[in-house]
Amino acid sequence: MNRNLKIFFVIVFTIGFFASCSSIEKMVDPFVGNWVSGAFNLEFKNDHTFELSIGKTISVNLEGKYEFDDNILTLDIEGNSELSFSYEFEDDKNKLVLKPQSKSSYFNTKIEFDRE
Fold first, then answer.
1. Residue 38 to residue 42: CA distance in whole angstroms
2. Is residue 52 left, alpha or beta, with left meaning phi > 0 and alpha meaning psi from -120 to 50?
3. Among 11, 19, 27, 33, which has the highest number of CB atoms less than 10 A from its own CB?
4. Same domain, residue pair 18 and 48
5. Which of 93, 110, 97, 106 lies closest to 64, judged by CA?
6. Cα angle: 98, vertex 102, 107; to 5 degrees
7. Are residues 53 and 108 in the same domain?
8. Which SS3 state, helix, strand or coil, does residue 115 take?
9. Which residues span the domain enclosing 61?
10. So what's the pLDDT on residue 20?
């Protein structure tokens, strides 16, 4: 019985550890993950790169690097330009609100993304 109890605790600990990994990742870089808003699909990766897809049938695909500080998220689009947004997280960091701070042909108003 003692051996079964040890195995049970090891399994519970392992499940708890892997479940908390995504929570730790959110604290270190809260942007990492896939975000969706209508025709926008925005994926932030651990290596500070992103992929943005705009549109469903006919789409525009952009990629590049991103940086953020306490107030501003900057997307450096490869071969194009740099976009700056003020940002805010809501709903326990499962909703991301971006407000453009620079002129862009892609973003003219605030966009609310949901974590997928």
1. 11
2. beta
3. 33
4. no
5. 106
6. 55
7. yes
8. strand
9. 31-115
10. 45
pTM: 0.72
Helix/strand/coil for 91: coil
The secondary structure element, H or E, covering residue 9 is helix 2-28
Dihedrals phi, psi of 9, to nearest 5 degrees: -65, -35
Residues 109 and 72 in one domain: yes
**How distant, in Å, are the alpha carbons of 4, 17, 38, 52 from that of 49?**
45, 26, 22, 10
**pLDDT at position 107:** 79
pLDDT of residue 32: 95
Q: For residues 9 and 57, state if they share a domain.
A: no
Q: Are residues 52 and 38 in the same domain?
A: yes
Q: Are residues 70 and 108 in the same domain?
A: yes
Q: Which residues of the chain have pLDDT under 70?
A: 1-2, 4-27
CB 113 within 8 A of CB 37: yes
3-state secondary structure of 53: strand
